[in-house]
TrEMBL record:
InterPro entries: LysR_HTH_N, LysR_subst-bd, WH-like_DNA-bd_sf, WH_DNA-bd_sf
UniProt cross-references to SUPFAM superfamilies, sorted A to Z: Periplasmic binding protein-like II (SSF53850), Winged helix' DNA-binding domain (SSF46785)
Organism: Rhizobium hidalgonense
Keywords: Activator, DNA-binding, Transcription, Transcription regulation
Family: Belongs to the LysR transcriptional regulatory family.
Keyword DNA-binding: yes
Entry protein name: LysR family transcriptional regulator
Domain (HTH lysR-type): residue spans on this chain: 9-66
Signal peptide positions on this chain: none
Record Pfam families: HTH_1, LysR_substrate
Highest taxon of the lineage: Bacteria
């Protein structure tokens, strides 16, 4: 949807301008908007020409917003949100007519919960599904920017941008092969895994810091056998006996077909998972049915 104001400024220019401010760079804005970086630069220059304001300072190939840029965003953001809602409604109508629905979620949930939910939907509804996997941040961006109708993620989420329904609460667990010595424990602590090789998520994730710091606090340097960058990449290594893994109980239950065992791990954390969508979006019948089946699938795990 592209319109033009009496000043010659287009809605598209304002949308691109907003995304540059949100992401902090033309490159990131271009990636989210699925256009080229030169196209973003051109639209920003045209916008500055139309409003006759210097909205950005150019410093070392970077755009630095001026105070006028933030003033303009505050002035037009309400209008742009209204345009967003119109576009979302059109997209919902289009998806309903074409019988398709897009879902963004951590790839690990495609092992059990999401396939069961989709199977349940398709028993009475011929919807086709497009599933996008990614990090929690990428999932939120997919839903925020309309590339996905629904998302599965964990809190916190921005309540100004999203609405959601609770799906499951998870706590940290230790995952290991069936028959492992740790199976005799009701609760596993860092002292119990001092001599164990670990299959652990990469250092940029908070879960890594919690797991590793729990050992280092006790004066033990962990034996990191494998580091992985996305949930579900660990299960094969654990199943092969490479090491144990500290994950959460919802993810551990996705691994049921691998015949592994898990026990609560302390100290741990609590994770709240939700099914979510853009705030203000009217759910179609297919979306509502999919939300309900996803909630049921997670509750059954």
């Amino acid at each position: 949807m592209v319109g033009k104001t009496t000043t010659g400024v287009t809605i598209r220019q304002l949308q691109i301008f907003r995304e540059v401010l949100r992401t902090g760079s033309e490159r990131h804005a271009a990636k989210i908007l699925k256009i080229t970086q030169p196209a973003v630069s051109q639209q920003i220059r045209q916008l500055e020409h139309e409003v006759d304001l210097a909205l950005f300072a150019r410093e070392k190939n970077r755009l630095v917003p001026t105070d006028r840029a933030w003033d303009l965003l505050r002035s037009v953001d309400g209008t742009l949100q209204s345009v967003d809602r119109i576009e979302k409604s059109i997209a919902a109508i289009r998806n309903e007519e074409t019988g398709s629905l897009s879902l963004a979620a951590p790839g690990v949930f495609c092992l059990n919960a999401i396939p069961r939910a989709i199977q349940a939907v398709r028993k009475s509804n011929a919807l086709s599904f497009q599933v996008r996997a990614g990090s929690h941040q990428q999932i939120a961006e997919h839903v925020l920017n309309g590339r996905s109708d629904l998302g599965v993620s964990r809190l916190p989420l921005d309540e100004r941008a999203f609405e959601w329904e609770p799906a499951a609460t998870a706590r940290n667990v230790c995952l290991f092969q069936a028959g492992h010595r740790l199976a005799a424990k009701e609760v596993i602590t860092p002292e119990d895994i001092i001599d164990e090789a670990l299959v652990d998520i990469e250092p940029q994730f908070a879960a890594h810091q919690m797991n590793i710091n729990a050992l280092r606090y006790r004066g033990v340097e962990p034996d990191l056998a494998v580091e992985y960058d996305a949930n579900s990449h660990d299960v094969g290594f654990v199943a092969a006996g490479v090491g144990i893994s500290i994950i959460n109980s919802l993810i551990a239950r996705e691994y049921r077909q691998f015949g592994l065992e898990f026990r609560p791990f302390e100290p741990g954390a609590v994770y709240h998972y939700v099914v979510f969508w853009q705030r203000g979006r009217q759910l179609t019948a297919g979306m509502r049915q999919t939300v309900d089946e996803l909630l049921g699938a997670f509750a059954a795990t």
